[in-house]
Design a protein that fits this description.
The protein is α/β, with parallel strands linked by helices and 407 residues long. The protein has 2 domains: 249 residues, 2,3-Dihydroxybiphenyl 1,2-Dioxygenase, domain 1 (Roll); 95 residues, Alpha-Beta Plaits. The chain is built from 9 helices and 25 strands. The strands form 4 sheets. Strands 2, 3, 4, 5, 6, 7, 8 and 9 form an 8-stranded mixed sheet that branches. Strand 10, helix 5 and strand 11 form a beta-alpha-beta unit. The longest helix is centred in the middle third of the chain and has 13 residues. The radius of gyration is 23 Å and the shape is elongated. It starts with 23 loop residues before the first helix and ends with a strand.
Length: 407
């Protein structure tokens, strides 16, 4: 594939540059994000109910499936609090806040109900106030006061309290689900660490039953693990530039002893691809393929989705072109040979649709492709999950979640 110049000088994503072994201990703590469903606090809100011909509201709580994501540049500051990534509570009030003075007053009134907790106002915009809590007990205390009606009685017209994360999410990333993420983390993190200390293009989600949609285990059956391995349709490829070959070598060494096996490509496919591209498949865990490209012309990440049927390549290309809202900068779709379509998703990342003749791939049922969108009004076939998240399947059954951070 042709090289696309990637500007590494700007942007909030980490530049992928030479790293020393001395940074490994620090980087290991942040290399791969793990989200645990059990850690997500409750959401508190007013629920509309009908009684006869009248409608009324009741104050209820429930555990949301996901945090409300807030773009790191959102809103105006209410204090000198340094940017933080949680725990945060997003408060929605009934009327739009007309000024910073009004926002400060509402924030002050909210904090007056939490005298026994460390809470600080953080940011505001429109109908929203973002509060920082020193711990989850403070957040829960505010929720309890909402449920009891205490906030209403003091004149605070709060209609919703949500757990939130201040984030700078990637345009596209992969989430892998499991009941316990320890094995997955221990197998994925070592090859990623020589590449970057903060890998934002994949994350692990620890759920309660280890399944997605009720039927997707996070580990391969033992019999299947011993047989010829199925090739997952998703792949994370790390692209190392020429002067970073020592890191590339370290990454390749990390696959040994962790259950990764080299993926043998069909002969014609191997000949058609560039030299220096290595794929690995895990023998027991349902994980994406991991690729390492040595001697790349630019550093970065490729999120690759392998198309299962050559006949569906064009349909899949249209589908992801609509969701990503960008034209492929490079494409090749000859009959009977390797097909690919490359979409730029950031200065350092590409989303690639690829079809390799003779390579049998299958959807990774415990993985989800997340795509950040600006609008969802014209997207058909979506199902709302919770605030700002929607689910759909692509034409080959791969799971996709669309999300829209508060901006």
């Amino acid at each position: 594939m042709a090289a696309r110049p990637l500007d590494l000088r700007e942007g909030s994503e980490e530049n992928y540059t030479e790293k020393s072994a001395a940074t490994d201990e620090v980087d290991a703590a942040k290399s791969l994000e793990v989200v645990r469903d059990s850690d997500i606090p409750l959401k508190y809100f007013r629920n509309k109910v009908f009684s006869g011909v009248q409608e009324r509201f009741e104050r209820v709580s429930e555990r949301p499936q996901k945090y409300r994501l807030i773009q790191s540049t959102w809103g105006q500051k209410l204090s000198d609090l340094v940017d933080t990534f949680g725990p945060l509570g997003l408060i929605t009030v009934e009327e739009k806040l007309a000024s910073e003075h009004k926002a400060q007053k509402v924030a002050h009134d909210l904090l007056s109900h939490l005298a026994d907790h460390r809470v600080k106002p953080f940011r505001w915009s429109g109908q929203y106030i973002l509060l920082w809590f020193a711990d989850k007990q403070g957040y829960s205390a505010l929720g309890s006061r909402f449920i009891s009606g205490e906030l209403d009685r003091s004149g605070l017209k709060v209609i919703k309290i949500e757990p939130a994360l201040l984030s700078n999410p990637s345009k596209c990333f992969i989430e892998i689900e499991s009941a316990s993420c320890e094995k997955h983390y221990n197998c994925l993190m070592p090859p990623l660490l020589p590449f970057t200390g903060a890998f934002t293009f994949a994350r692990l989600r620890e759920n309660e039953n280890g399944k997605s949609n009720g039927d997707a285990p996070s580990e391969r059956p033992k019999k299947q693990a011993k047989m010829e391995l199925e090739t997952p349709a998703l792949c994370l490829t790390l692209m190392f530039v020429g002067h970073n070959q020592s890191q590339a070598a370290r990454s390749l060494q990390c696959f040994s002893g962790l259950g990764w096996q080299p993926l043998v490509l069909p002969g014609p496919v191997a000949k058609a691809l560039e030299d220096g591209l290595h794929y690995f498949v895990h023998e027991s865990l349902n994980l994406p393929l991991v690729g390492v490209r040595t001697g790349s012309s630019q550093p970065g990440v490729q999120l690759t989705l392998f198309v299962q049927s050559s006949q569906k390549f064009t349909e899949m290309e249209r589908f992801y072109k609509t969701l990503l809202d960008v034209e492929p900068y490079e494409r090749q779709i000859p009959e009977g040979s390797v097909k690919y379509s490359v979409f730029p998703i950031s200065r350092q990342a590409e989303f690639v649709l690829a079809y390799y003749p003779g390579l049998s791939v299958s959807s990774l049922k415990n993985a989800v492709i997340y795509i950040q969108v600006k609008d969802i009004e014209n997207i058909q076939g979506i199902i709302k999950i919770c605030s700002s998240y929607w689910h759909m399947n692509d034409p080959e059954g791969n799971r996709v979640v669309l999300y829209k951070p508060l901006r």
